[in-house]
Structure prediction request, 473 residues.
Amino acid sequence: MRTLSKALLSIFLLTFTAISWAACPEGTKNNYKGECLPIAGESVKGNEKATGNVLDVNSSMQTTQSPSCSDFSNDPICAIAGRVSMQVLGKYVVNDPMAIHYDPIARRKELAVAESAAAWMCSLRPKYLTGFIAKPIIKIGGNDFRNGVWNPGGGDPIDEFIEPAVKKVRESLAQGIESWLRSGDTRYLDELREQLEIWSQADALSEMIPDVHKYWGLNWGYADVHTPIREVLVASLTAYHLLKSEKALNQTEDALIYGWLGRRMADSVMGPTDGVGPGLENLMPPGNHEETRKALVYGLWGVISNDSVYFQAAIKQFYITLDHARADGSHGWEVRKGTTGSKRSTRGLKKMNQVLNFVTIIAEIAANQGYDLYSIQNKRGVNFHKMVEFLVEASTNKNLKTSYNDSSIQDTRFLRGRKGSINLAWAEAYVRRFPDRPVSEKLAGLLANVFGIKAQPVVGGGATCIYRDIKSV
Prediction:
């Protein structure tokens, strides 16, 4: 399905023409609802890109999160639990709506002159448009609703549930991105466009079914529903950005896909506990692995839609995550003793690694907008680099023991992971940006033992394909 029928295209053209920026007055843009809204940062004069800034997280977490957080469902900043003053967040505006976590055109040029390296780092889908287009699904549920079957109480929140159809579309998009980066063949762009058109036309993932049974005595509601949706959004937003960068969408196609992405993003703003009600705040605090997953999606959408409020929500999560860091760089929530429930005594480093996966890509998005989050310090004088150094040391030194961590019993299989978010995808981006830091040499050695990291939920495609220095292969 390269294109929709002419009649259907005409309908979409009439329906979505108002989304075009040109339809709004200067200084405003249309959102996916067809409303003209001010362009964030448009009135800011002489905005200086912050580099090397050092800010005390503690001093920024004082008063309000946003002008008003009485209605969580309408404010992505409020939907990130915890407080960071607007005085800090207001400094971060989208400077370039085409600069996300990497530049696909620049990366394609790098890979084009190093075919052998590209062949090692990037997958190449052997067929076009055959068997790889995932059919859209409308209903998506948590542990009580799996694979389209209602099975109340039959799930376990520890399991990482992903609908097979959701996994297929995520991987279909990621493979298409990788294949284009490696080959430059425009037929892969056709495939990406077709996949996004089909899901957009069907308004896929529009019916969310919450869990109704309690696990560990808590009502999880939509928490496990959002995970697979956000994984699809990361891949979809990255694919959409590639198509925009290559000017591979006409106005009707663009409006159709943008509208679907906007609706799913609006669904994602459900408050600090994702609509599960009171009681989960102490189990799922801001700065944990699921809240940072949420923030990554906000960061991508904030840039692509030129909406600084979403962008600031992602920045807010980075600040809160950094505030969790102890003096040694360990994550105060994820790395702790605990043998029941989430079993952090053995899964703490694994979960901290997931946090780094998401917030590193947020930092990359910010860096490409001109802001340095890596060097910001919390009240303990700890910056992101210290967190990296702790995780690398704790996961490779089995003799390391503290009152909150015993590395000898920690699950460190993420060091060898290739797919999903349980891997070192973040390290590919980190080593590329900071090749001369001592910890990067250790990370490069760990990455050399992994035959290419895919990590679609983290970067939308293959992390190795997107970031690895071709000279190192």
Notes: The longest helix spans residues 344-368. The first strand starts at residue 28 and ends at 30.
